[in-house]
Amino acid sequence: MTAKINGFEMPDRGGCFGEYGGRYVPEQLEKILDEILIAYEKIRDDDDFKKELQFLYKNYAGRPSPIFYAKNLSRKTGGARIYLKREDLNHTGAHKINHCLGEVLLAKKMGKTKVIAETGAGSHGVALATAATLLGLECDIYMGEIDIAKAQPTVIRMKILGANIVPVHDGGKTLKEAVDAALDAYFADPVSQFYAIGSVVGPHPFPMMVRDFQQIVGIEAREQFQAETGLLPDYLVACVGGGSNAIGLFTAFLEDHDVQLYGVEPAGFGPEVGQHAMTLTMGTPGVLHGFKSYLLQNDRGEPSSVHSVASGLDYPGVGPQHSLLKDIGRVNYASATDQEAVDAFFELSKAEGIVPALESAHAVAYAMKLARGLDQTKTILVNLSGRGDKDIDFVVEHYGKDHGIVL
Question: Where are the domain boundaries for CATH 3.40.50.1100 in the chain?
Answer without folding.
Answer: 34-49+96-211, 59-93+215-403
